[in-house]
Amino acid sequence: MANRHLLAASRADEFKAWLAENGWVIEAPKDYYEVIRARRGKRVLIVYRRLEKGQHLTIHDKDAGVVRAFLKDKRRRRKEEDENAG
Description:
The protein is about 35% helix and about 35% strand. By secondary structure, it is an alpha+beta fold. A hairpin with a 7-residue loop joins strand 4 (about 45-50) and strand 5.
């Protein structure tokens, strides 16, 4: 199955950078619908754009944990920045 509501399209570049920081090798997308293609070992993660213009991208359910780790890390970093600023 696919998850169509977890990763906002506006965060695609941030997610790609986070993947690279966390040991994923970023590869060139293979077709129009692929926004991000990354590999770590034998595992391949692909993020797709949707047919209809939406605010979110599509990922496979098996990759939802990686996206959730990205979102959790972003929240943690934002919280640390807020604590250091104030």
